[in-house]
Amino acid sequence: MTETKNAPFLEINDLKVEYFTKESVVHAVNGVTLTLEKGKTLGLVGETGAGKTTVAKSILRILPDVGARIVGGEIKLEGRDLLKSSEAEMRQIRGKRISMIFQDPMTALNPVQRVGDQIAEVIALHSNESAEAVRKRAEDMLEMVNIPRERYSEYPHQFSGGMKQRVVIAIALACNPELLLADEPTTALDVTIQAQVLRLIAQLRDKLGTSMMLITHDMGVVATHCDTVAVVYAGSVVEYGTKEQVFDHPTHPYTIGLFGAIPNMNVDERWLHPIEGLPPDPSHLPTGCAFHPRCKYATEACRTGEVPTVITPDGHQCRCHNTDAVLKGEGK
Amino acid sequence: MTEYQMKASLNQGKVRKSSEFLRVLKQLSYNKIAMFGLILFILELVLCLLSPVIAPYDYAAMDVIHMNETPSAAHWFGTDDLGRDILTRILFGGRYSITMSLLSVVVSLIFGVVIGSVAGYFGGWVDNVIMRILDIIQSLPGMLLTIVVSAALGNGYLNTVMALSVNGIPAQARMLRAQMMRVRGSEYVEAAQSINCSQVRIIAKHLFPNSFSPLIVQASMAIANRITMCSSLSFLGLGVQPPAPEWGAMLSGARQYIRDYPHMVIFPGLAIAVTVLALNLMGDGLRDALDPRLKR
Amino acid sequence: MTPVIEVQGLKKYFPTARGLLHAVDDVTLKIEKGKTLGVVGESGCGKSTLGRTIIHLLERTDGKIFLNGEDISDIQGRELKKAREKMQIIFQDPYSSLNPRYTVENTIREPLIVSKRFKKAEIDEKAAELMELVGIDNRLRLSYPHELDGGRRQRVGIARALALEPDFVVCDEPVSALDVSIQAQVLNLLRSLQDQKGLTYMFVTHNLSVVRHISDDICVMYLGQVVELCPSRELFKNPLHPYTQALLSAIPSVDIHNPNIPEILEGELTSPVNPKPGCRFAARCKYATEACQQPQVQRELSPGHFVRCCRAEELA
Description:
The complex is a heterotrimer. By secondary structure, chain A is an alpha/beta fold. Chain A has helices at residues 52-60, 87-93, 105-108, 115-125, 131-144, 161-173, 191-208, 219-225, 243-248, 253-261, 300-303, 323-329; strands spanning 10-20, 25-36, 41-45, 68-77, 80-81, 98-101, 179-183, 211-216, 228-233, 236-242, 309-311, 317-319. In chain A, helix 4 (115-125) packs across helix 5, helix 5 crosses helix 6 and helix 6 (161-173) packs parallel to helix 7 (191-208). Chain B has helices spanning 2-30, 32-49, 51-54, 86-122, 124-139, 142-153, 157-166, 169-184, 187-194, 199-207, 213-235, 247-254, 263-290. Mean pLDDT of chain B is 82; it is low at 1-18. Chain B is built from 13 helices and no strands. In chain C, the strands form two sheets. Chain C has an eight-stranded mixed sheet with strand order 6-7-8-3-9-10-12-11, with helices on both faces. A four-stranded antiparallel sheet of chain C has the order 2-1-4-5. Chain C has a single domain (5-315), classed as 3-Layer(aba) Sandwich (Rossmann fold), CATH 3.40.50. The two termini of chain C are 32 Å apart. Chain C has helices at 47-54, 77-86, 104-115, 120-133, 150-162, 180-197, 208-214, 232-237, 242-249, 312-315, and strands at 5-16, 19-31, 36-40, 62-67, 70-71, 87-90, 168-172, 200-205, 217-222, 225-231, 299-302, 305-307. Chain C is of the alpha/beta class. Chains in contact: A-C, B-C.
């Protein structure tokens, strides 16, 4: 309950999450440590199954009751550990202080409830205002996401995909949350609509001073919208720093591989440079560095034991034994 | 070298053919509950088929001295209101009840599959016509339909089987059609079209295997229903003719004695229940074994 | 040289409850042998329908389709079968494009079996060759799709499409469902297959950086119509149609020092059901004038650069 002035807004320390079935244990998150300053945006990049969504769900404590457990670590919101909060306290936090935007706008809305009422519901839940005042605020929210307030009484099917995602954003921002978790908010949308939605999120973030965790697999989205970046591989943060540090001097072989695999818009290349091999099966993670079977810099040290987090010359974190070799190898 | 390779791959071909069937068997054998159902059912079937040999009494022999007796060493399951041995009658009755219900379910499954496939694959007006006809059939009370068909065809084993099947066809056809309509939109069906698969092949190899599993469960459930329906027919003088025993008929005949001599209801009831249970367990297991996604 | 595929005024309308949906409306294009035509556009613009209509998976409403110079618009029966063997498709979703009850080998063998041209031994041999060609390990031949990852499944789909040695392959968003590292593997595979077999691709996608990488020519579609068609480089250097310009500006750039400034499109999407005769983009276009309410024609502004916009010269 102690709130220190200097504590970062959101602090995740050594978070570990497992999913388990009768036969196997899936190590979804293996010691993730991240911080997020007030009003900033942190990008979480990685491939399918890397554990990005699990991190976000752990913050909100909405992991499934059966089959998932947080094994260790702490998630501090202004110094207060959310993992130790009671369910009643969490209910007060969810939606009001932290809210989440899910990937698929098509399934995130209730198809038989009026769009406006779905926004009003969240507002009513966290305030004691009168019904009229709530409705007015819901209408204001609609307008804020560029939907005319006259459409309050329409149903989700009457809206296009981009508009639905804007409604989802309006719901997420209805109570002026301090932290917004956006899980692939634009992956299901077309590029022109994506640009529209991302710009809207950025404008609202700046206007309301919201901090944001943006989960995506699109490096371009990170480049345009984030302040800091964490690259996630097999449940671990392999590289973490400011956008400039990670994009200008990628140091982890995986990050470098990711950049190499994207077709470059400015250079004509006949062949792409894919990362060899496949992402690991999270129920049978390789020992040592989870990336070593796919890594061309891998040495004996990478195969077993803990991987140290190294501070690179430009001051960002990289979880790799061989940063020196990698940085030199870049020139070749 | 190539010859060797060809030979090797030919051998693989042989292994593959049988391995598909073996795979299903092997999968089924992993499933203890399904195996239990299978063994139970086989045991029951064998006992019933061997009834002329193993049954302790004549199924039709009346014994006025030993009427309504509760189970004893002489009559393990007791006797009925005419003094007939219930164990004997259950064993003989099983020959009718099990085989007739099973056969009728198979017949309605076959018709249901053909009709449902055609409706589900072609859609459009074909589907419309078929579905409206099925609507008409389903709007008739099921029992009435069975009675009408049975009366029209006359008595006899196969005729009764046919009468029992008619009623189940629409439900099976409908379920298959709904499943097929779902599967028909899949890209692998489009892919099959693009590589020139004929319509018959698309239905048989792509649509049907991916839509039939709910039918197996439904069919195993339908067996109990058929046993009782069969008894209703014999009650009306259609279907199996007394004194030939038949489980459903034994049940309905003993109904009036349920308060004083409950064993007369319990044993035939138990026979039906055990059969249905065994088939359900087996059906569930078979559905899972046929689905490669649930492979261990 | 005759183009492998040529399409003239192709139309595909779907009847809906509210009227005719113009999914593909008056599309004219051609693809030379060994080349890749990228088709880009947003969801619902008809790009997938275009590919499927060309290879006769969907029946066209109007227009002409030529394969290697022969008119195949109305062929049926045996001729259709023959033509289909020459035109194949690779699907978007590697999860739903493979029959879950077929092993890898069964899926790859099926086109060979169906064609009835091969003996059993040949089929086995060819299937093994195909698996090697697309890089699937032989030990996976008895695996089922659910046991494979997305990239491998997509390779199986590619092997199936190539089994009958087609001339023309429609790639319908083949890498959209894959992670970037796997996406690069599959794109490289498609390119090396093109080099080896002289394949002609129609590459349908919404991902502009992928399409730029793989295509020789690019065709931009908007609500059923081709709005711009030109060589790939030309399109990215000199986009003429206002929609293409907006589309290109909306790609989030990976270069943090050189970000794209997205041009945000205002206005509502026009419905493709019974559309008005004018330009379909006019409602969202900042340059729209009275003239845009008239039907637009596809014009060749410079050699090989086609655009469907009456104001293209003024804006260039």
